[in-house]
Amino acid sequence: MRSQLRPVLAAVLALVLPGLGHLSLRRWGRALLWHLTVVGGGVALFALYDVEPVDPLADPAAASAAIPTDVALPVALLFALSALDAYLVGRADVAERERADAAAEAMRRRAASAEGEDGPESGRNPPAAAISGGDGETLEVTCPNCGQETDADLGFCYWCTEPLPWAESDE
Known about the structure:
Blueprint (H helix, E strand, L loop, with lengths): L1 H15 L3 H5 L3 H21 L11 H7 L2 H47 L12 H4 L8 E3 L6 E3 L20
Antiparallel strand pairs: 1-2
Helix pairs in contact: 1-5, 3-5
């Protein structure tokens, strides 16, 4: 449930400050790109329309009237597009995480069924054919979470730090 709220949080943060929603999703390059686009576009529009700075504390009514619609509308549109992009990227991350979890669960089931009654811990160990070569050396296996090759003896993927399905738990 918590991961389902991440896209919404990212969109709200992107509305507060452009790029902040992407930072919460750990998309550094995208965050920088959106921030520079919105801020740079705003600065360019303010310079193009020669908007004079107004002190909002002195006269609040004059501050809202000082920004022309030709400037405010495109900047608001850029904010909205940044928030939409943060939401869509967050949704894609959630879907990818769910697919990885489903693949890991399927691998756990396959390992458990392959071991059958012979396995000492029913699915906690990887299949022997998957990790050892003909001469007994340990081979690398593919992590079900990130897809990178990792050492099966470690019990966790050193790329994404997720535990491997056959790793022993300390419970």
